[in-house]
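In response to the reviewer comment on reproducibility (Comment 2.3), we provide here a single inverse folding case reported in full, input and output, so that an independent group could reproduce the run without further information from us. The structure tokens appear first.
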């Protein structure tokens, strides 16, 4: 029998797609193609500070062109300041007024509003050193803080204001810091002789990196610019100033030896000092090799953490922590994970914390010594929508939760009432929302917004999401360009795992016509969003596709052949793709996946590896400037081999494309940056020499002044050249497929 409902549904789908395609083509007819020049001109806004009432938000505006003059060969050089330039602005969330604090092409390191919201302190690189500036909102003027000290401001800086708005706390470099750092760096890079001694406790480049993390913490009076020393030279993290302004807390860490398993080798301790008596320390957590992962309440006087599946809280001045989660009550005995809890967040009043378990969220009242389950997690979290808490209301009665469905593009914000255990939809649609931030007073919700195809802009809303306002319009010109549209595609890999892929349509798409397809690989994808790479592919007249794969530790190479090819088959079955014209590329881990994939199948007409390793064995020691990262990546990290080379050498061979170069039949373009300190050009180069030796169709392009990402992370000329080569590579072999 015919399924009339199914036939009607398909008819409506194709009818809707027809009309959408018709209007999409008509709208694009008067527009110009999106180019690599356009890609570099797209601007983004990065915001990180706002006044307590949310009236003003501060951030930097930057385009792709603002990262194009970096000397990648000087990575880890303590004397080098990379020219990551931007424009520092503040935006009035009520009027939309935008004030430029520091113009484009400025190197901005940090910025922070004063507690009263009247001033903005920021660190800017000027006249060959970092300098502290103070912007006054009432006068709309900045002034240089002429600090009376020969020490330089540290580039790894955060700014903390004292409660009375009279001083800021920042980090400085010791007088001899640069001399020592330069000596260490030059010995490793210039020599004339460089010695690597395995008996030394730290790798040479780790020693250089740890030297770069040395700072001295000081207080700067904003009226006199006079400095008061607070903490001597050491390595500090998570520096906080209590709400009452009289105490500083901080983590101090001391590297002792190189660790290959991403743990151990460094002692971490948590301390507190009084600002009026910085010489006396209160030890809150004694130094040990266990990393400190704590969360402070709003007053910065109490902290909480998870240890051995339970929640502990402690106060400044308290010698021992208090366990506040229970495992003996009838309530928690019902938890199928035997009451294993993880800390989530503090309530605003600091009198309660929220913890999670396998089955739900638990409200722990510290004063009342009670613990109650207030939220039930779904039995199948992989099927249920994702809800994550963005803000806990000031009255403690509700949560604002970012929402995303898992089976479709439905995203936004919901509100959860704790007492009634009910949800209220505040804003749900197919648009893309990200980077949620809420003002301290809870009256303003800031977020990045996109329709899923265009670049983000900053928006603000009230807690009811009834008064939403757009605060930036960074790329108005993009409305005159041909931009791709996206679709979520579901498919199953050969193991039956349901996966998602994001499909990007050719900009002049015609219903019923089959197009070439270019896949862009990495790991898993679900959300759409503006991507310059997919717009370049779509403007070349191709479908772009970002397929997901299901990676399994110990057998990562199998995921690509199982997942990517299944996604392609789905698109072919949909009647969209010309199966003879398939391309694939990826950057870094995606480039590695690309080369590995074409060693297992010959169905691609062309492939491009951009800064991806091809020999995971030699990769272990290829990137000295980043220490043990490559070993850790293979054994316990992204590469997912799960064991060392000496425990399972065949696993390393099986995940190295160069070992199977004889099986590659796909024409392969290899793109590298000579200054790449992450995945060195010489690793990708190995596959070039192997394929050439075997008489394969291969081209290697090495951008001499570029970094990781090859031409993407080189000069503007490199960027344009790389895109020209990539699109010509695909066109050459797609055209050749027509001849066969």
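Designed residues, in position order:
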């Amino acid at each position: 029998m015919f399924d009339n409902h199914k036939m009607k549904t398909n008819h409506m789908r194709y009818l809707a797609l027809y009309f959408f395609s018709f209007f999409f083509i008509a709208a694009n007819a008067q527009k110009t193609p999106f180019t690599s020049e356009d890609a570099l001109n797209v601007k983004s806004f990065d915001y990180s500070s706002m006044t307590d009432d949310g009236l003003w938000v501060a951030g930097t505006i930057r385009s792709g062109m603002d990262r194009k003059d970096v000397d990648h060969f000087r990575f880890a050089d303590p004397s080098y300041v990379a020219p990551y330039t931007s424009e520092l602005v503040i935006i009035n969330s009520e009027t939309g007024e935008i004030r430029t604090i520091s113009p484009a092409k400025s190197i901005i390191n940090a910025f922070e509003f004063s507690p009263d919201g009247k001033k903005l302190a920021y660190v800017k690189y000027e006249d060959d050193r970092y300098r502290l500036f103070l912007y006054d909102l009432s006068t709309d003027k900045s002034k240089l803080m002429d600090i009376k000290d020969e020490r330089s401001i540290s580039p790894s800086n955060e700014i903390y204001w004292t409660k009375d708005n009279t001083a800021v706390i920042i980090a400085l470099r010791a007088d001899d810091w640069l001399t020592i750092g330069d000596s260490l760096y030059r010995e490793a890079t210039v020599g004339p002789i460089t010695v690597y001694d395995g008996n030394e406790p730290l790798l040479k480049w780790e020693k250089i990196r740890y030297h770069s993390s040395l700072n001295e913490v000081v207080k700067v009076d904003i009226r006199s610019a006079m400095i008061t020393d607070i903490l001597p030279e050491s390595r500090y993290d998570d520096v906080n100033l209590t709400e009452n302004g009289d105490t500083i807390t901080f983590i101090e860490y001391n590297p002792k030896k190189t660790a290959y398993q991403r743990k151990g080798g460094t002692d971490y301790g948590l301390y507190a000092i009084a600002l009026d008596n910085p010489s006396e320390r209160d030890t809150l957590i004694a130094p040990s090799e266990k990393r400190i992962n704590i969360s402070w309440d709003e007053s910065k006087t109490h902290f909480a953490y998870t240890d051995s599946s339970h929640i502990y809280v402690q106060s400044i001045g308290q010698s021992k922590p208090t366990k506040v989660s229970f495992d003996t009550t009838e309530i928690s005995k019902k938890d199928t994970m035997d009451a294993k809890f993880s800390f989530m967040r503090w309530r605003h009043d600091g009198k309660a914390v929220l913890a999670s378990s396998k089955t739900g969220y638990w409200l722990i009242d510290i004063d009342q010594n009670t613990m109650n389950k207030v939220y039930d997690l779904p039995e199948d979290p992989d099927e249920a929508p994702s809800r994550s808490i963005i803000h806990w209301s000031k009255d403690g009665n509700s949560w604002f939760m970012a929402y995303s469905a898992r089976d479709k593009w439905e995203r936004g914000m919901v509100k959860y009432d704790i007492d009634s255990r009910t949800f209220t939809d505040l804003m749900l649609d197919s648009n893309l929302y990200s980077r949620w931030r809420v003002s301290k007073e809870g009256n303003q919700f800031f977020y990045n917004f996109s329709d899923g195809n265009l670049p983000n802009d900053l928006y603000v809303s009230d807690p009811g999401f009834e008064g939403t306002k757009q605060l930036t319009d960074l790329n108005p010109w993009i409305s005159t360009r041909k931009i791709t549209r996206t679709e979520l595609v579901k498919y199953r890999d050969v193991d039956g795992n349901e996966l998602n892929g994001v499909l990007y349509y050719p900009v002049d798409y015609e219903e019923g016509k089959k197009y070439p397809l270019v896949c862009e690989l990495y790991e898993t994808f679900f959300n759409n969003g503006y991507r310059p790479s997919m717009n370049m592919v779509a403007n070349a007249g191709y479908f772009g596709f970002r397929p997901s794969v299901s990676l399994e530790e110990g057998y990562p190479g199998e995921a690509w052949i199982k997942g990517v090819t299944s996604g392609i088959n789905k698109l072919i079955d949909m009647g969209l793709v010309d199966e003879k014209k398939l391309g694939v590329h990826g950057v870094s881990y995606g480039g590695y996946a690309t080369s590995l994939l074409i060693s297992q199948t010959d169905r691609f007409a062309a492939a491009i590896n951009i800064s991806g390793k091809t020999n995971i064995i030699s990769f272990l020691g290829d990137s000295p400037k980043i220490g043990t990262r490559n070993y850790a990546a293979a054994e316990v990290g992204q590469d997912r081999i799960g064991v060392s080379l000496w425990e399972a050498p065949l696993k390393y061979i099986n995940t190295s494309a160069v070992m199977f170069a004889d099986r590659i039949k796909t024409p392969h373009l290899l793109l590298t940056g000579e200054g790449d300190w992450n995945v060195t050009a010489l690793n990708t180069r190995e596959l070039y020499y192997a394929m050439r030796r075997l008489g394969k169709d291969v081209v290697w392009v090495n951008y001499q002044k570029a970094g990781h990402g090859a031409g993407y992370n080189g000069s503007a000329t490199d960027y344009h050249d790389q895109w020209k080569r990539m699109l010509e590579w695909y066109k050459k072999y797609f055209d050749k497929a027509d001849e066969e």
